[in-house]
Amino acid sequence: MIESFSEKIIRGKNFKFHTIKVPLRNEKGEVWGLCGIARDITEYETIKQDLIKSHDRLQLISNNIVEAIFILDMDLKFTFVTPSIKILGYEIEELLENGIEKILTAQSYVDAMKVLREELEIEKSHKLDKERARVLTLQIRKKNRSILWAEITFKFLRDGEGKPNGILGVARDVTETYETHQKLNRSYRQLDRLLEGVVNALASAVEKRDPYTAGHQRRVAELAVAITKELGVSEEIIDYLRIAALLHDVG
C-alpha cells in the first residue's frame, strides 16, 4: 500500500488530498496495475489547523494566568490543573494523582465537604439555577507545609442531562488580604475594649457625683438594649444605643 498527501489548485482554490494506492497482482504475483482512492481532506486539514491554533492560544493563557484553574471529578480528584498551581510547590502530575484532601488543611476540608453537601442538596430542588457558583475561603497547605489562604469560586460541570459530573474551580491567593483583614479586626476589638473602658469610667464618675441615682445609667442601658432586641435592631445599632444610654446623664 502506498499512501501520499498532495495539494492541487482547482479553479483558483487550493485543495488537499489523501491518496491510497494498492498494487494489483496477477497469479504469479507480478504487479500489473494500481488501484487508488483519493479523498478530499481540505476541510479536515482546515479544522485541524484551527484546533492547533486554539490549543496554542489556550496553552498560552493557561501558562500565564495567575489564578489556578482546576477541574475535579465527583470524587474530588483532580482531573485538570493549570501550571499556576505550581505556586504550591507541587508538580501537576502529583496533584492529578490525588484529591483536594492533599492540599487542604483538616478544617478547610471539613468546610469544603459541608459546602459540597449543601450544593448537592440544592440539586434536588425543582427551582434549580444550574449556572450558580459558590465562593469560599479555605486554607491551602503547600508542599513545604506552609499555609496560604485561597478564595475559591466553583460551580458544577454537567453532563448531557444536566446532572453534575465534575467541578470547575478558580483559586486565588488572598493570604495578604486575609491577614490584613485579621489585623484590622484585632485593632477594632482593641478600640472597642478601650471605648468600653472610657464609657464605664464616665458612668461611674456620674454615679459617684450623685449617689441617689447610682445604677440608674446601667438600668437605662439594660432596658434600652432589651427593647431594641425585641424590635429586631442590628447588633451594631444596639451597641451604639447601649453606650448612649450609659452616658445620657453625662454633662
UniProtKB/TrEMBL annotation:
Q: Where do the HD-GYP domain residues begin and end?
A: 191-251
- Residues forming the PAC domain are 1-53, 134-186
Q: One short Pfam family name for this protein?
A: PAS_9
- Tree of life domain: Bacteria
Entries under Gene3D superfamilies matching the protein: Hypothetical protein af1432, PAS domain
Return the PROSITE patterns for the record: HD_GYP, PAC
InterPro entries found in the cross-reference section: HD/PDEase_dom (IPR003607), HD_domain (IPR006674), HD_GYP_dom (IPR037522), PAC (IPR001610), PAS (IPR000014), PAS-assoc_C (IPR000700), PAS-like_dom_sf (IPR035965)
Q: Which NCBIfam families match?
A: sensory_box
Protein name (record): PAS domain S-box protein
Say which species the protein is native to. Answer: candidate division WOR-3 bacterium
